[in-house]
Each structure stands twice: as C-alpha cells, then as structure tokens.
Amino acid sequence: MRGIIKLENILTTEERLDLLKKAEHYVFKWEDRPGLQSHPDMHKKSEFNIIHQKIINRLHEETGKLLCIDRSWILKTTGKSEESIWHTHGRPFSLVYYIKIPSSYEKSNGTDFEHGFEKVSENGLIFFDGSLKHKPPEYSFSFARYTMGMDLTILNKYP
After folding, report:
1. Is 150 exposed, middle or buried (0-12, 13-18, 19+ CB in 10 A)?
2. d(Cα 134, Cα 146) in Å, to the nearest integer?
3. How confident is the model at residue 5 (pLDDT cuts 50, 70, 90)?
4. How far apart are CA 159 and CA 152, in angstroms?
5. What are 56-105's pLDDT values in tens digits?
6. DSSP character for 137?
7. Model confidence pLDDT, tens digit, residues 91-150
8. Separation of first and last alpha carbons in the chain
9. 124 with 9: CB under 8 angstroms?
C-alpha cells in the first residue's frame, strides 16, 4: 500500500472527549521526541481498549485487512517548528487519529507528507504506509493539538 486512506467520524463525541481528558495525564517531554508524548504502549492500557478496538474494526471494514497494533501513543503539539520533524515509522502501516485540532486554521488540520499536506478533520484518521515520510504541521497561533499515533502490522490469522 502506497496510498493514503482517510476516515471520518471514528468515535462518538463522548469517547473522543474522554480520550482527550485522559491524554493529558500521559504526555510528557522526551529529550529526543517532538512536543509532549506518551509512552508507545497506550494500546496495552485497559482504559483505551474500546477506542483501539473501534479504530481497528473500522480499518478492517474499510480495507479488509486484519491489523495488529504494535505501538500506540498520544502526541500533544503546539505548532512550533521544533515539534515538526520529518520521520517514518519502520512498520508496514501507520495512522494518525485527530483527537483535537483547531477548526479555525486549516494548516493544522492534518499531516504534512513529502508529497504535500493531507487535510483530515477532528475525529478523523489517516491510514498510510509506515515508510512515508511525514511530520506534524507547523502553525503560529496558540493552540494545543492532540493526536493518537499507531503503528500496525497485518495479522495473518485470528488469534
């Protein structure tokens, strides 16, 4: 898969706001990572099981792929250039779920890829080849942007 798949309306409003509330307790400053990030084990925490399962089920419906989460983390950025670092994930598939993004500034609503900016709305996600180089967008106004990232592999058979 070299393409990008965008999906909207992933969680209910209540689920998304609950995730946002919990996210603040898990993010912190790392020396070698942009913004504030959680550990990459959010998929192993029982309080996030429903959210991860809904995302995996929706991806299965859309792609037909049985996917397994290798890593999952929460990222809080504020648009600063030092938070916007080009990177890849080294996994077959990656996704970004947009928990909270500003609606008033279009450039913050999505992800920068080498081929261009991919706009995605709040409560939407973007699913892509993990080898695609990308970064969080830069923006110059005061707003905290919350996303959940995941790296995934194909599950060859049911567990």
Report:
1. buried
2. 16
3. very high
4. 16
5. 999 999 999 999 999 999 999 876 767 777 888 888 999 999 999 876 65
6. P
7. 899 999 999 987 665 566 889 899 999 999 999 999 999 999 988 887 777 788 899 999
8. 24
9. yes
Q: Give the pair of three-digit tokens for residue 131.
A: 């080898």
Q: Are 83 and 77 in contact (CB under 8 A)?
A: yes
Which one, of 149, 143, 49, 52, lies nearest residue 91 by Cα?
149
Beta-bridged to residue 37, according to DSSP, are 28, 75
Please tell me the distance from the alpha carbon of residue 48 to that of residue 45, in angstroms, as a whole number.
Answer: 6
Enumerate residues 6+ apart whose C-beta is below 8 A from 157.
Answer: 66
Give Cβ neighbours of residue 117 (< 8 Å, ≥ 6 apart): 107, 110, 111, 137
